[in-house]
Each structure stands twice: as structure tokens, then as C-alpha cells.
Design a protein that fits this description.
The chain is α+β, with helices and mostly antiparallel strands and 222 residues long. Helices cover 35% and strands 25% of the residues. It contains 6 helices and 10 strands. The strands form 3 sheets. Strands 1-4-7-8 form a 4-stranded mixed beta sheet. The protein has a 4-stranded antiparallel beta sheet with strand order 3-9-2-10. β7 and β8 form a beta hairpin. α2 packs parallel to α5, α4 crosses α5 and α5 packs antiparallel against α6. The longest helix is centred in the N-terminal third of the chain and has 22 residues. The radius of gyration is 16 Å and the shape is globular.
């Protein structure tokens, strides 16, 4: 069953340009796709470093707008970075990227290329009705590989059981493992341009080519 994602009215009031690109698909998760990592190292790392040189990290398209949205929501973007910025900073510092699995690694590729934060969730671990909203005062969750994360005033994805992800760091509850069989991958856009539509096109191609995604459904929540 396709998930239903709604953007909260208060979030839209604070940042009218917010949209979410959605992919839902079946998959067999593997440890690594060698072709994807070769593509990253040969092509994407260089383009990313060039973008840092041309713009400076804070002003890279789609990262710049995400930082502005975080301020509008009440979160300091230099302390709680959008995940795409964190990934691009690692590349700029020569630290490379963590190898997780084929879905998460492809998710990160989409994020680096687009400048948008992307998140992937085990569809069986989340409810069918989801909302993208601003985190509430005192709200936290257990992060992936981290202790409790303060998600107050962050953009968060939530279902009836509470917050499950954010455009900064996702929760442990719906993390992708090699047992995952169905995935919801989201691209969080705070930009008023056509970059999300473009990211949906190459994002689908990346998911099919590098993550082995099948039966992909694609849509944009506004």
C-alpha cells in the first residue's frame, strides 16, 4: 500500500516552498554496490569539491535554502546541519563517506548530487499515514548510531507513533537493514525551483541502477 504523506500547515506557513519527493519500492538490500562507489570516487567527489570551491558550502544551491528554512523553523543550521551539507562537508574535508548498504549509499548519492537531504525508511516499520512537520519542544528520538537526538524545531517525518526521521539525522526505528524488503525514500526540498523535479528523475535511475529498486512509485507531496 502506498504511503500517504502530508506537509503540515504550520510548516508551510513558516516556509511555503517546502515539498517532499517520494519513492516507494521493493528491494533486496546488499552490503555494497561496487559500480556506485566507483562512480562516486571517479566523478561525484570531484564535482562536489568543485561546487564547494565555486560557492562555499553554505551557498551551494539547495543547501542554502535548507539552511534558511532551518532558521525559519527555529533551529540553528550551523549546529544541526541538513544531512546533505554534512555529507558534502565530509567530501570537502577528504574524509570520504561511510559504507552502509546499497539503499543507504544510493540515498546519500542522491543527496550529494542534489544538495537536498534524503532519507530512506523501512516501509514495514512505519505507518501508512505520515506527516512532515516541525519538531515539538522537548521531542527526541534514538538516532542511528547515536544517543537521543533533540529534534525540537527540526523538520521531522512522523507517523501516529511519533517522529521517525528528519532532514538532519534519522531515527533507529525505521533504519534500512539487509532484512528490509520495501523502502520509502524521501527527498526533502526547501527550494522554490525545479531542482526537485530533476532530482526525482536521476534519483529513480540511481535507485534502479545501484540499489536494485523494483516496482517504484514516484510522487511529490506539496
Amino acid at each position: 500500500m502506498r504511503k500517504q504523506l502530508k506537509i503540515d500547515e504550520e510548516m508551510k506557513r513558516l516556509w511555503p516552498a517546502v515539498r517532499v519527493g517520494c519513492f516507494q519500492y521493493k528491494v533486496k538490500v546488499y552490503k555494497k554496490n561496487e559500480d556506485m562507489w566507483a562512480y562516486l570516487k571517479k566523478d561525484i567527489f570531484k564535482k562536489t569539491k568543485d561546487a564547494i570551491f565555486d560557492y562555499g558550502i553554505n551557498d551551494i544551491p539547495n543547501i542554502k535554502e535548507s539552511r534558511m528554512a532551518y532558521k525559519a523553523f527555529g533551529k540553528e543550521p550551523s549546529r544541526y546541519r541538513v544531512s546533505s551539507e554534512a555529507l558534502i562537508r565530509r567530501i570537502g574535508q577528504g574524509k570520504g563517506l561511510y559504507e552502509v548498504n546499497t539503499v543507504v549509499d544510493t540515498n546519500n548519492l542522491i543527496s550529494i548530487v542534489s544538495g537536498f537531504s534524503a532519507g530512506s525508511y523501512d516501509a514495514e516499520k512505519i505507518e501508512d499515514i505520515l506527516v512532515f512537520r516541525v519538531g515539538r519542544e522537548g521531542e527526541t528520538y534514538e538516532g542511528i548510531g547515536k544517543d537521543e537526538i533533540n529534534i525540537a524545531y527540526l523538520p521531522v517525518l512522523a507517523d501516529g507513533r511519533g517522529a521517525v526521521g528528519s532532514s538532519t539525522s534519522d531515527s533507529k526505528r525505521a533504519m534500512i537493514t539487509e532484512d528490509t524488503r520495501e523502502v520509502l525514500t524521501l527527498i526533502y526540498s526547501f527550494s522554490d525551483n525545479q531542482a526537485l523535479e530533476e532530482a526525482m528523475k536521476y534519483g529513480k535511475e540511481y535507485l534502479e541502477k545501484y540499489a536494485g529498486a523494483q516496482e517504484i512509485e514516484c510522487w511529490i507531496a506539496k
